[in-house]
Design brief:
Distance between the termini: 113 Å
Structural class: alpha/beta
Strand content: 5-15%
CATH class of the largest domain: Alpha Beta
Number of helices: 14
CATH superfamily of the largest domain: Periplasmic binding protein-like II
Radius of gyration: 31 Å
Order of helices and strands: HEHEHEHHEHHEHHEEEHHHEHH
Number of domains: 2
Shape: globular
Helix content: 40-55%
CATH topology of the largest domain: D-Maltodextrin-Binding Protein, domain 2
């Protein structure tokens, strides 16, 4: 048998390796081409899915609060911008009716898709009545709530029933010119309740201005007849009497605590009775912006825009207007206030409308959109990404931002509206009419509150 020359074997081996390499390269190329094609198809499908999701259609109604610029801003900016993005969507905007009419409309089943309400009792009440959507179950809710600072989020009945759109807190504002005229230092506002009453008396004793009286301070007394929500306009004064240790309810919301001696609700009533002696009967023509009022303990940051509508010309914080914390019983104590804000709730309807309402809320919470809303509505941010924005570091805004550190949120108890209304009715009886004592006012409200909670 002939032996194969070594050179031939080597040539055959090299040829075999060459063929294997070509085969492998061809296989790899085909695999890469198939992978690229697959990825391309997946991306195309993903884009088609995103495009399909963005093609929203339908009609929703958004109800906004009365006052301020909520109606104008929502209708002329938010709704228009959303409909520009989604041409097949119609967003109707209406103002919340006053005088309890919203309650009647809800009872009749005539509800908006999105309600711009308040923190605390409102989401709790509507959630308890099973009227609003648990937003925990909406797509993308986890991502949205993770972008919001935790102090603005409260759960009710095991779910999240509102998105905190914006925040506000209340401080004392005072008229610097009236301070000067009364011989008071406009750069050293009262820090304690006793100092406050002394300053109110001094300003109240000033002579009339163009035939109109000057008042030491003012309270929004006409709102006493508008329901329990007005308690939040007084709560910050009450909190300072007990140094933020007591609100109205215990931690479980099963009993009231405002009748405890350490809660000092009696002292609150007594102080308001004294302060009312230096105040007009109501704000009709006698509000702070008339330039005839020395101090106002109920100024929420959201009303900053109202300074532009002051008599004769706009009032400017730092020049015409001073801002200070709510007074305290004793010098050196912590100054507390309320944490309030606007909540976004979705009333139950059908899945399509609820989803469209949710998409509108997510749009409202986009950083750029939200910042524009905060600026136009004079509100404070709830989004973590906006807290340190340079806009909120301005000298006329920063005091309100700093106060948030010692602000107590409204209690998420469904009955708080009714019980707050009991406190306000007795406020009228003891502060406005002097029919009953402060102690009687506390005891009567406590008795009625417990009767309500026991039902």
């Amino acid at each position: 048998m002939k032996k194969t020359p070594l050179i031939v074997i080597l040539v055959l081996m090299m040829f075999s390796v060459f063929l294997g390499a070509c085969s492998s390269e061809t296989s790899d190329t085909e695999t890469n081409e198939e992978t690229t094609q697959t990825k391309s198809e997946e991306n195309q499908n993903s884009n088609e899915d995103e495009e399909k999701e963005e093609k929203l259609s339908g009609e929703i109604t958004v109800m906004v609060p009365a006052g301020g610029y909520y109606l104008k801003h929502t209708k002329e900016f938010l709704a228009k911008e959303f409909m520009k993005r989604h041409p097949d969507v119609t967003v109707n905007v209406e103002q919340e009716p006053e005088g309890g009419q919203l309650t009647a409309r809800i009872a009749a089943g005539d509800t908006p898709d999105v309600l711009v309400g308040v923190f605390g009792y409102q989401p709790a009440k509507y959630a308890k009545d099973k009227l609003i959507v648990n937003l925990d179950k909406m797509p993308g809710s986890k991502e949205l709530f993770n972008r919001i600072a935790p102090q603005y989020i409260q759960e009710n009945f095991g779910g999240k029933y509102y998105v905190p759109w914006n925040a506000t807190t209340q401080m004392m504002i005072y008229n610097k010119e009236l301070f000067r005229q009364a011989g008071l230092d406009p750069e050293n506002p009262p820090s304690t309740f006793d100092e406050y009453l002394e300053a109110a008396k001094a300003i109240d004793n000033l002579p009339d201005k163009n035939g109109a009286p000057i008042y030491g301070n003012v309270f929004w007394n006409e709102a006493l007849a508008w329901g329990g929500w007005y308690w939040t306009m007084n709560a910050q004064i009450y909190y300072n009497f007990n140094q933020g240790k007591y609100q109205l309810f215990n931690d479980l919301g099963t009993d009231i605590v405002f009748d405890k001696p350490d809660a000092k609700l009696k002292e609150f009533y007594e102080f308001m009775d004294k302060a009312q002696k230096y105040a007009p009967e109501n704000m009709d023509g006698n509000d702070f912006f008339s330039r005839r009022v020395g101090m106002w303990l109920q100024f929420g940051y959201g009303w900053k825009a109202n300074l532009n509508e002051a008599k004769d010309k706009p009032m400017v914080i730092g020049e015409d207007v001073g801002v200070a914390p709510i007074p305290v019983p004793e010098e050196g104590q912590t100054h507390y206030s309320t944490l309030d804000g606007r909540s976004l709730m979705i009333f139950k309807s059908d899945p399509e409308r609820e989803r469209l309402a949710w998409e509108f809320i997510k749009f409202m919470m986009e950083d750029e959109i939200n910042l524009k809303s905060l600026k136009e509505l004079a509100q404070l941010p709830t989004l973590k990404s906006l807290t340190d924005d340079e806009y909120f570091q301005q000298p006329d805004i920063k005091p309100f931002v700093d106060q948030l550190e010692h602000a107590l949120p409204n209690e998420p108890v469904a009955e708080i509206g009714d019980i707050s209304n009991m406190l306000l009715k007795n406020y009228v009886r003891t502060v406005i009419k002097d029919d009953i004592s402060a102690e009687e006012a506390v005891n009567d409200a406590a008795k009625k509150a417990r009767e309500l909670l026991s039902q």
